[in-house]
Amino acid sequence: MISPNNKWLIHTLLVGLIPILTRLLSWATTTTGTVDPLATVDFITLGLVMHVSILNETAHIPTLDNASKTLLNSISTVFIATYGALYAVATIGEHNAELINVSAVLTGSVGLCAVSTTLGFILFQHFSVRSSA
Q1: Which end of the chain offers a freer environment for a tag, N or C, measured as fewer CB atoms within 10 Å?
Q2: pTM summary value
Q3: Which positions, given as ranges, span the membrane (predicted)?
């Protein structure tokens, strides 16, 4: 049986993956070179969805003390601000590709998104273990 925390994480990932999966479907069904298979903004969206969900869930975890809530909220806020900055850089890169190394921004956003997803997994696995104990 899937725990409520795991259900939350699965739903969050599914919603966050919609832009990535839609782009991959578009890429697979269009002529070569029309649509890029990966885009920075899609990974930024997944990261933002993860951290907004973490912010929401920390407010509803009764076993979490105030210091831990503050720490998790601060971490998520830093990630959200970083994703905002990455979005601005990606937008500049779309309008003037000479100013920005687009592949480096894409690689950075994929890496940051992987960190965010891992943080979400660790966080909610930890709380599913604590709430069942």
Answers
A1: N
A2: 0.88
A3: 71-90, 102-124
